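HUMAN: Can I see a protein plus its fold?

ASSISTANT:
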Amino acid sequence: MFILIKNQNTMKKIITIIAFLLVSIPVSAQNYFSVTYINVSPENVSEVARLESTYWSKVAQANIDSGKLSAWGLFARAIPAGNDTWTHAYINVYDSLEKMLDFGQWNPQEILGINNQDIATGDLINNYVVHHYKVQASINGDSQFSVWNFARPENLQGFVMDNVNLWKPFFEKDMGGRTSWGIGTKITNVTSDNATVMTWDGYGSLVDAVSALDYPLDGSSYEGPKGDKTSEYNPNGWGAQVIVQRALWLSSSQ
């Protein structure tokens, strides 16, 4: 959420190739979403959670009720990865690009009668970065944990089309233990070396999510849909894979 950008002088450089990504966002292929990756020190986590659950969730719910927002959530890395990377991520889901760019909707004074500065979390975070995506395809489901996969395919169009036309129908027949799946292409903060696409695989437990990353070393591989060329389009594989846990979630479908 943009309200995190309170003091830009305190922002540190974030390696944008790491990305955080989705725990079962109930979206359609026409939706857009923003992800705000933040780094929160352990001593500030409880206060950030209190402000978000007590105040900002109510602002989000009001925006959902008015149709300005489709879904909102807070996610946390399920397994810590050190102090120099993001620890949590906010997701805002919209049904149009115009709504995603309407930053004025985050107005606690208008909605709650509370001044923005009184509930701002900017001083509680160490750094942040915001990315915007378009959902290309998804299979919805209730996922407490998810694996977010980030890549920079050499052939982005081919990679996306194989996911949409081959992998989605494949998963609709057999999810392989997943509870949700999706793919989104990055719109903003694209550089010459960071990820341009992300996919997400939702699971019901942390064990299931970690097990999905326990690839066999004996030469065997997962057999995907016939005609799939995603490994050809993306020869360098995933640039990052991160397991996240859903902490807070609100949506218009609830």
In short: The two ends are 21 Å apart (CA to CA). Confidence is low (pLDDT under 50) at residues 1-29. The chain has one domain: 2-251. The domain at 2-251 is CATH 3.30.70.100 (Alpha-Beta Plaits).
